Amino acid sequence: MKSPAVLNRIAGRFLAGVQCAEVRVATNNFMQPQITNSQPALDSLHVLYRQFADVRNAFEKAHNESKVWPEWREKQVLNFLSVVDTYSHDLEERYVAKRADSLATTLRNLVEISIWIQYCGASEEKAKVFLYDCVRDMRELVEALQKAYQSENGSPEPGLQEVIDDIRTMASREGIPDYDDKYIQVRDAAREIGRASVFNSTYKVCSKLAHPASLMLNVGAEGLLDALFVSGQKLCVLSFNGLLTQIQKSYPTVTYGEGET
To answer: Where would I find the beta strands (DSSP E) of the chain?
Structure first.
């Protein structure tokens, strides 16, 4: 390369082509760029904050009165609501701070949780698969710690081995199926619900921006802040509406106060 100016020109062309832009499907099914306006997305998030609280409170009240869902499913959905609410606040904070890397991480998390919400909402069987994955996650986490300890010290750590053995025993006693299987990966869940293409492309973009890779270290991505923020806001709304639809199928009285997303 003759000069860093060459890289600067390439970077300029790259950013000019993608900054502040989204892709939408026009009525003629042709992909066209759309300039991003972040203010409506910011206003929508502020409404959504209140709606999360409304729905959470209404859902807990309705469930306590009728117990249509088993307790594990109620807790799972409440956890989904809480996490999406947290990520929506993260989204705004990192946008205001102009942190493209952190914003990309939040967007990637929102992509993943939107997949899990739709996956678990598809059937109670899928919701249970995801539920039991937490035990497989525990097993893999402790086994990874044990492997690291043994690599450094030449022998297993007794306390960790006791935890590994206890989790296995408890899983067997509680009838948790496929304990030794690999947990279902989010890309596989996305494929099962027909969102593999969107997940793969969005995940790739977010990973390029979230990690300290060459693009972020040599060029930066502040010009993508608006597009990342608006995409994240749309995922917050998608996740919220998906959860509300699931809840209302069994608890039709659950709703939120005034305001629209």
So the answer is: 21-25, 31-35
Q: How many CB atoms lie within 10 A of CB 164?
A: 17
DSSP 223: G
CB under 8 Å, gap of 24 or more: what pairs does 178-185 form? 178/132, 178/136, 179/135, 179/136, 179/139, 181/136, 182/136, 183/133, 183/136, 183/137, 183/140, 184/129, 184/130, 184/133
Q: pLDDT of 94-119, one tens digit each? A: 999 999 999 999 999 999 999 999 99
Using DSSP bridges, classify how beta strands 21-25 and 31-35 pair: parallel, antiparallel or unpaired: antiparallel
- Distance between CA 242 and CA 75 in Å, rounded? 16
DSSP string, 7-24: HHHHHHHHHHHHTTEEEE
Q: What is the pLDDT of residues 146-204, one digit of tens each?
A: 999 999 999 999 998 888 888 888 888 888 888 888 889 999 999 999 999 989 988 88
pTM as predicted: 0.84
Beta-carbon contacts of residue 174 (< 8 Å; ≥ 6 apart): none
